[in-house]
């Protein structure tokens, strides 16, 4: 056996990332840009010095949480497209707590995080409830809930949290995840303590799914609903629970932006894409906690590093977007590579 | 199952390592390459080199999410920088450059990058960058910053603003003279102080000519959503509105698209668009006619050039608010479409322009002032 299952599982992600980089390089060559300087600029833009390293980690933080949110639902067999909307309500809720309460930090910050999680959980729970009780497909409901979240939060920022402004006040320092110390260490990057929250949640997800009875039930429902029901599990309860937890993770991703990166909420002209990118992060990470963390690092690196390509290597922004999309495309299409592998294996026999 | 998952994780870790390693390898190559061409590989090196040749001055700008090809505001600013660069023999990417923002999380990152590439003067284009520029300017007191369309606090920030309400007033006068259905429309980008200024001026201008004319005001809530612009324009034209003034950046491209579609189907249709920021005459060209009645031209390019020159000469207006208005041609009304802008309309516009410059007419710049103004008519 030349290609055992183990080898295939290791090789597939490696090959897909390499193919992505290679095709990105070809595109750059075709359009007359030097792929070597292009990728060098990408690298420098993400890890060039501690400022960019800080910004990369800052970008990775919400990706980890949104990736975990999608992954958690997928493990129970639910496709939560609504992470985007749950991120937005989480962001709004965290900023609302941040500007409205006057508490010591030890209470204020956890309260803001918890409220953001609850807001996301409610937003995710509604589609879960509809799916469990009425059989409405969660994809449709969550997509619609994204728009509801976007426009309601815009209206809340405009009419409730401010008097017709397009941006809320800054949150109180007692609710902020930002840190002078981290910022000064990284030349004023917006790196904040949220990364610790994100890593902690990743550990929580691993623990819940793999070490608890609830987690076993959730995964079981994901594998086969009918068998789970036959085994005496409450399928409806598990569907709702999965969406609630997934939504809570997404709400926390929003809190990372609200309490960490920005410190305020503004009127959004479109989606933040944190939630949608989370779908790709979860798929690339094979829906596991550690996989999601690694995939989020790859996405954050590409996102921040790409900003440097036009200025340092002269590659136009549009081309950068194509290159990044190609890398993601190949990474996400690892199924094709797996299929090719299996084909070769059969022919070899 | 359990084992399997560990292998996927391990594989991911390895692949990530490979990506990083691959990039690391090319990084060396990149520097070699650059050394061959320029003598200095790193970005800092090329920055210094540029400043050495050009009397220690380099300038850059950060766009909002519209990008430098938005046919409007950002493009105008970039044209100003290009003109400035040409005038002073600067090289693009070294003496002057731009960084494009893909989302509002990128503003701070982009500003920081340009600071770290040793640009002397950095522009934030658009009021959306105001919090970002205040933050970064506080961290780097030795670099000069300028913000267009907003007032930012800080000794090293120059704030460039325009009296858009005055220009919009004249656009309103032109629209009121052109409309046949006595209904005109206004399409705004994001509802806020800045675009309210356009709205207030425009409505005041229309009502000053004829208080009977109805003005339909709609906001797209984005400066980069051409699809929404097209939808709003389609509704407005269907309702019988024949002149639409848009103050919505790239969203306005949708308004032009809709007007041109109508004109294509029915060359006799009476539909007009009033452009914004740049002279948008070329956006309105359809067959052998043009739907652009006029444009409220805001000379962001001149302002950018102006402030850059002052900064280069060591007279950077830090902490000041510079306001461009009708009297210094900072805002004006385009006359490129001679067929549509008849003598009659032009003389009406000129008449009101005189009144505004004399101070005879105080153009409202907020929605509250607009109400008072309209009630006093």
Task: Write up this protein.
The complex is a heterodimer of chains A (about 350) and B (about 375). Chain A has 16 helices and no strands. The model of chain A has no long low-confidence stretch (mean pLDDT about 90). By secondary structure, chain A is an all-alpha fold. In chain A, helix 9 packs across helix 11 and helix 12 crosses helix 13. Chain A is globular. Chain A has a domain at about 65-295. By secondary structure, chain B is of the alpha/beta class. Chain B has 2 domains: about 55-160 and about 300-330, Rossmann fold (3-Layer(aba) Sandwich); about 165-295 and about 340-375, Rossmann fold (3-Layer(aba) Sandwich). Chain B contains 12 helices and 14 strands. In chain B, helix 4 packs parallel to helix 5 (about 130-140), helix 7 (about 195-210) runs parallel beside helix 12 (about 365-375) and helix 8 crosses helix 9 (about 250-265). Chain B is globular, with a radius of gyration of 24 Å. The model of chain B is unreliable at about 20-55 (pLDDT under 50). Chains A and B meet through helix 1, helix 2, helix 3, helix 11 and helix 13 of A and helix 1, helix 4 and helix 5 of B.
Compile the SSE list and pairings.
The complex is a heterodimer of chains A (349) and B (377).
Chain A: H1 5-30, H2 35-47, H3 50-75, H4 83-100, H5 105-134, H6 138-161, H7 180-185, H8 194-211, H9 213-223, H10 225-230, H11 235-262, H12 274-284, H13 289-306, H14 308-313, H15 317-332, H16 334-348
Helix pairs in contact in A: 1-2, 1-15, 1-16, 2-3, 2-13, 3-8, 3-11, 3-12, 3-13, 4-5, 4-6, 4-11, 4-12, 5-6, 5-11, 8-9, 8-13, 9-11, 12-13, 13-15
Chain B: H1 2-38, H2 43-53, E1 59-62, H3 73-87, E2 96-99, H4 106-116, E3 121-125, H5 130-139, E4 144-148, E5 157-162, H6 164-178, E6 183-188, H7 193-209, E7 214-219, H8 226-238, E8 243-247, H9 252-265, E9 272-277, E10 285-286, E11 289-290, E12 292-298, H10 300-312, E13 321-324, E14 331-333, H11 343-358, H12 367-376
């Amino acid at each position: 056996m030349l290609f055992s299952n183990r080898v295939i599982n290791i090789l597939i992600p490696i090959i897909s990332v390499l193919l992505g980089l290679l095709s990105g390089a070809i595109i750059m060559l075709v359009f007359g840009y030097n792929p070597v300087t292009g990728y060098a600029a990408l690298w420098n833009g993400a890890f060039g010095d501690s400022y960019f390293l800080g910004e990369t980690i800052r970008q990775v933080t919400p990706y980890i949480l949104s990736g975990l949110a999608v992954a958690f639902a997928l493990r129970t067999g639910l496709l939560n497209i609504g992470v985007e909307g749950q991120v937005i309500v989480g962001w709004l809720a965290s900023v609302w707590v941040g500007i409205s309460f006057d508490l010591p930090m030890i209470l204020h910050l956890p309260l803001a995080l918890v409220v953001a999680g609850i807001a996301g959980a409610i937003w995710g729970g509604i589609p879960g409830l509809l799916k469990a009780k009425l059989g409405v497909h969660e994809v449709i409901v969550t997509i619609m809930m994204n728009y509801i979240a976007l426009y309601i939060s815009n209206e809340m920022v405009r009419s409730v949290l401010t008097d017709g402004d397009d941006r809320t006040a800054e949150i109180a320092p007692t609710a902020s995840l930002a840190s002078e110390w981290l910022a000064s260490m990284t030349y004023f990057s917006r790196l904040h303590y949220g990364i610790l929250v994100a890593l902690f949640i990743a550990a929580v997800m691993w623990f819940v799914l793999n070490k608890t009875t609830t987690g076993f039930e959730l995964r079981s429902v994901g594998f086969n609903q009918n068998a789970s029901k036959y085994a005496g599990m409450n399928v409806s309860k598990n569907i709702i629970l999965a969406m609630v937890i997934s939504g809570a993770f997404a709400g926390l991703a929003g809190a990372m932006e609200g309490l960490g990166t920005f410190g305020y909420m503004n009127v959004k002209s479109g989606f933040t894409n944190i939630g949608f990118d989370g779908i790709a992060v979860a798929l690339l990470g094979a829906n596991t906690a550690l996989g999601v963390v690694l995939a989020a690092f790859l996405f954050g690196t590409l996102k921040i590093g790409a900003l440097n390509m036009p200025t340092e290597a002269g590659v136009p922004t549009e081309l950068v977007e194509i290159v990044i999309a190609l890398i993601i495309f190949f990474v996400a299409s690892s199924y094709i590579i797996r299929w090719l592998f299996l084909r070769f294996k059969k022919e070899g026999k | 199952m359990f084992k399997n998952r560990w292998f996927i994780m391990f594989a991911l870790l390895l692949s990530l390592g490979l990506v990083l390693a691959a990039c690391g390898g090319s990084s060396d190559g990149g520097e070699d390459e650059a050394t061959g061409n320029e003598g200095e590989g790193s970005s800092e090196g090329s920055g210094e080199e540029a400043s050495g040749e050009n009397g220690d001055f380099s300038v850059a700008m950060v766009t909002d999410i519209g990008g430098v090809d938005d046919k409007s505001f950002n493009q105008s600013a970039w044209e100003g920088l290009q003109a400035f660069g040409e005038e002073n023999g600067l090289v693009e990417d070294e003496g002057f450059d731009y960084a494009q923002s893909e989302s509002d999380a990128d503003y701070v990152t982009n500003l920081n990058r340009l600071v770290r590439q040793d640009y002397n003067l950095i522009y934030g284009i658009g009021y959306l960058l105001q919090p970002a520029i205040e933050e970064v300017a506080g961290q780097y007191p030795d670099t000069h910053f300028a913000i267009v369309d907003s007032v930012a606090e800080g000794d090293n920030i120059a704030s460039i603003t325009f009296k858009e309400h005055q220009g919009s007033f004249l656009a309103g006068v032109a629209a009121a003279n052109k409309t046949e259905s006595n209904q005109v429309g206004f399409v705004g980008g994001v509802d806020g102080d800045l675009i309210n200024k356009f709205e207030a001026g425009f409505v005041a201008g229309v009502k000053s000519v004829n208080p009977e004319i109805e003005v339909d005001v709609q906001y797209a809530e984005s400066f980069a959503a051409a699809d929404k612009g097209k939808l709003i324009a389609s509704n407005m034209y269907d309702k019988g509105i024949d002149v639409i003034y848009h103050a919505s950046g790239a969203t306005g491209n949708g308004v032009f698209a809709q007007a041109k579609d109508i004109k294509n189907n029915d060359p006799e249709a009476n539909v007009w668009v009033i452009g914004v920021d740049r002279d948008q005459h070329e956006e309105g060209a359809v067959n052998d006619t043009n739907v652009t009645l006029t444009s409220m031209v805001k000379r962001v390019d001149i302002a950018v050039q102006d402030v850059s020159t002052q900064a280069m000469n060591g007279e950077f207006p830090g902490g000041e608010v510079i306001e461009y208005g009708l009297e210094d041609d900072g805002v004006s009304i385009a006359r490129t479409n001679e067929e549509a802008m008849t003598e009659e309309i032009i003389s009406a516009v000129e008449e009101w322009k005189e009144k505004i410059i004399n101070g005879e007419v105080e153009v409202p710049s907020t929605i509250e002032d607009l109400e008072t103004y309209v009630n006093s008519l």
